[in-house]
Specification:
With about 350 residues, the protein is of the alpha/beta class. It folds into 3 domains: about 50 residues, Orthogonal Bundle (434 Repressor (Amino-terminal Domain)), CATH 1.10.260.40; about 130 residues, Response regulator (Rossmann fold), CATH 3.40.50.2300; about 130 residues, Rossmann fold, CATH 3.40.50.2300. It is about 45% helix and about 15% strand. It has 13 helices and 12 strands. The strands form 3 sheets. Strands 2-1-3-4-5-11 form a 6-stranded parallel sheet, sandwiched between helices. A 4-stranded parallel sheet has the order 7-6-8-9, with helices on both faces. It has a two-stranded antiparallel sheet with strand order 10-12. Helix 5 links the parallel strand 1 and strand 2. The protein is elongated, with a radius of gyration of 24 Å. InterPro entries: HTH_LacI, LacI/GalR-like_sensor, Lambda_DNA-bd_dom_sf, Peripla_BP_I. Keywords: DNA-binding, Transcription, Transcription regulation. This is HTH-type transcriptional repressor CytR. It comes from Streptomyces jeddahensis. GO terms for molecular function: DNA-binding transcription factor activity; transcription cis-regulatory region binding.
Length: about 350
């Protein structure tokens, strides 16, 4: 059984691993000059002892490391890149360095959280837009530093996000107001995250809006796919194969919605005359393609998370749960259904 991490120091790790203090330090900090087999042995001992690099031992005379770890599941997607851009701009202006950890996929994610407590010395960790499982929460908390989240999460950390259910209701209420009664939902999940489900708020909004309008829900009008444009196109094809297709489609994201638009156009259907389509996010392509959507201020969420973190590190008062408002943006992809 692992010993209490507060009673363990680097000398204990070095002694158990059979190496010098200097070698243990280099191995734990991933520095050069250590054989890979030795590094693995030291890290294994640190894991066994639940050793955490003491923040006090790593701080400079100024009282801080000046580094923040940012964990992000995707860096090539617009949403994550824009969120990171806002966060990094605020932290850079405060002379804080950002250490970026890209956990794209289940194996990367498992390896990151397994090695996390002993591998870096940082003042804080920011988790961007993915749910943190209970075991991962425990690994993060072993670091003994400030942890915040931005862009949506399912963990008890200070966070900045939108209300997904409110955003979904804005999209659904718009379609119902136009007169649509047979409305489909294309729900999206992230296959790279373990146990990931479609954003519950966006799905809850679909059923709640139908219920409040007195419209019976029909599970044949619900398609759940992996997150992406091609997947949205495939889902739309399945919805069109029904004897009585929908007159409107509510997609969990603009990328998914634009995939649906491609299928509709290839099928010779007019938008919005034959089918209305709406998404969520206000992706840059949404304006170019005249897509009705619900706008969320992505960069602003990153900036607010950065300011929240700075306030916490400085010991200043701050709001720990910030919900950023969303806005329905009506464009040319929605209209009343045909008579």
């Amino acid at each position: 059984m692992a010993q209490n991490s507060r009673k363990i120091n680097m000398a204990d790790v070095a002694r158990r691993a059979g190496v010098s203090m200097a070698t243990a330090s280099r191995a734990l900090n991933n520095e050069n000059g250590v054989a890979e087999s030795t590094r693995r042995r030291v890290l294994a001992v640190a894991e066994e002892l639940s050793y955490v690099v003491s923040p006090e031992a790593s701080r400079l005379a100024g009282g801080a490391t000046g580094r923040v770890a940012v964990v992000v599941p995707h860096i090539s997607r617009w949403f994550f890149a824009t969120l990171l851009e806002g966060l990094e701009a605020v932290l850079r202006a405060a002379d804080l360095d950002v250490l970026l950890y890209h956990v794209d996929g289940i194996e990367d994610r498992h390896d990151f959280f397994h090695r996390l407590p002993a591998r870096r010395k940082v003042d804080a960790v920011v988790v961007l837009a993915f749910p943190v499982a209970e075991e991962e929460q425990r690994r993060l908390e072993l670091m003994g530093v400030t942890i915040i989240a931005a862009g949506g999460q399912h963990a008890p950390y200070p966070n900045v996000c939108i209300d997904d259910e409110t955003a979904g209701r804005q999209a659904m209420d718009h379609l119902i107001f136009l007169g649509h009664r047979r409305i489909a939902m294309i729900a999206a999940v992230d296959p790279d995250q373990p146990g990931e489900l479609a954003p519950p708020g966006r799905s809850n909004a679909y059923y709640a809006a139908l219920r409040d309008a007195g419209i019976p829900s029909d599970e044949q009008l619900v398609a759940t796919v992996n997150w992406g444009g091609a997947e949205g196109a495939d889902a739309m094809a399945r919805l069109l194969s029904q004897r009585e297709p929908p007159t409107a489609v509510y997609a969990h994201s603009d990328e998914v919605a634009l995939g649906a638009v491609r299928t509709l156009r290839r099928a010779g259907l007019r938008i919005p005359e034959d089918m209305s389509v709406t998404g969520i996010d206000d992706h840059p392509l949404a304006e170019l393609t005249d897509l009705t959507t619900v706008r969320q201020p992505v960069r602003q969420q990153g900036e607010l998370a950065g300011r929240m973190l700075l306030n916490i590190l400085r010991g200043e008062e701050t709001d720990h749960d910030v919900v950023v408002p969303t806005q329905l943006v009506i464009r040319g992809s929605t209209a009343p259904p045909r008579s």
